[in-house]
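lol ok so funny story. i was supposed to be doing the assay writeup but got distracted and ended up predicting the structure for this chain instead. priorities right. anyway since i did it might as well share w the group, maybe its usefull for someone
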Amino acid sequence: MTSKAPSLVPAATPSIGVARTFALHLWAFVLPLVNMTFLLTGPHVWWSALLWSLPIVVLVLMDNNAKPDHRQPPQSLPSLPFDVQLYLLALLQLVNHVLVGVMASRLHVGSPAALGTTLANLFTVVVLSGTTAGYSGIVLAHELVHRRSRFSFQLGRLLLVMVCYEQFATEHVRGHHPRLGTPEDPATARFGESLYDFVRRTIPQQFASAWHLEKIRLGDAHMRFWDPRMVRHRVLQGVVAEVIVVLAYLFVFGPVAVVFFLFQARTAVVLLETVNYIEHWGISRATRAVTPVDSWDTDNAFTLRTLVGLSRHADHHAQASRPYQCLRYFEESPKMPLGYYGTILLAMFRNDEYRARATAELARRRLGPYRDGAVLASAAASEPAAALAEHVT
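and the output, tada:
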């Protein structure tokens, strides 16, 4: 990885006005507000609770049928309205976390009918609230931990604590970004790797990496657990904060609320790592500097506006400090089969098809293992990778 990065420029497409850019990003409020309405009006009888999961279906259908958006943001955007939008979304998500506990505290499992009602509400919390916790929690945290402001960074950490994944703040910024597309990066899915194998591998590896990075930051990679400096270890702080949050749910809202909270958090984390999977699958970086061809993105307009610019992930990795509203479209980056919503479901439930389509895209663009025109010997030796390459030739 010593060669010079290619010179890539944003696609020469029309820009979009400031007011319209702001208005379109208001789509990001839809799902958290739907989730808040569900929680405020709950608990629900079993059939009503199940119906509240339908907004997720609607969002997927809208994303799958959305048009591409190649328009570039204005060269100069005022940061204040977009920052206010970000902080309001974060506040809304924190309120939703509390409301999960409030609603769950009104449920019990003392009879078969009560158990059925509780399980139906739990199902929708997993689907709707868990998706919102990933969508309007971790996605926002991802944006905030990249900000230089201490307040923004700490707010991002708090959002991650509420899904029991605070170590992401350390590993993503100081581990994943520098090591993107290399064998040393646990968050880069290998060519041919299934989603199940990736999630099983990446979660413990990312935690171990974040723990090690914090020891280095504090001055000693071999620091003992009982070293006084460990009180400033951010990953340890995150674990302690997460335990405190779970205990608070137990004492304030009861054991049912703890179950609801943990299931919601699990959904959010699985969604996050599925996003990591589809954003970096099969990528191997060819240059020392990260370029827009080293990450997957999508030109889907609905994903762009509802996920605060996450779909333009290629530009985010090329310039991590660029705020979400200023992210640019690059034609050269590999493109996902669908928007984020559809691609996530494809990776989760039809993983063989996802890998076949992703393999075809890498081959078409001569990226990843196809960078030199053929599958690298190490990748070709992998049975899943070889099978997928054969499937698309």
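Residues 18-392 form one domain. The longest helix spans residues 112-144.
back to the writeup now i swear
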